[in-house]
Design goal:
CATH class: Alpha Beta
Shape: globular
Strand content: 15-25%
CATH superfamily: Beta-grasp domain
Strand order of the largest sheet: 2-1-5-3-4
CATH architecture: Roll
Order of helices and strands: EHEHEEE
């Protein structure tokens, strides 16, 4: 499972991507993934809103995840 991180999420984690190896257990849902990242990187939990895409489609917290999924975490973007 590859988790691509963008914007402030990338800054918090300190790298643009998280990978789960074959030997690691993967989260079962989008919510579980966000919880796992927040436990490892507490600043991540402070993000008030963010979009999550699973295999290029936006996904709600209850969407199931599989080992071969590609997930993108997209925090809010400000601009003018």
């Amino acid at each position: 499972m590859d988790v691509l991180l963008f914007g402030i999420a990338k800054d918090i984690v300190g790298k643009p991507q998280l990978q789960f190896s074959e030997s690691e257990s993967v989260p079962n849902s989008v919510l579980e993934l966000k919880t796992m990242i927040s436990e490892t990187y507490p600043e991540f939990a402070k993000l008030s809103s963010l979009a999550v895409a699973v295999n290029s489609e936006y996904a709600a917290d209850d969407v199931s995840l599989g080992r071969n999924d590609e997930i993108a975490i997209i925090p809010p973007v400000s601009g003018g």
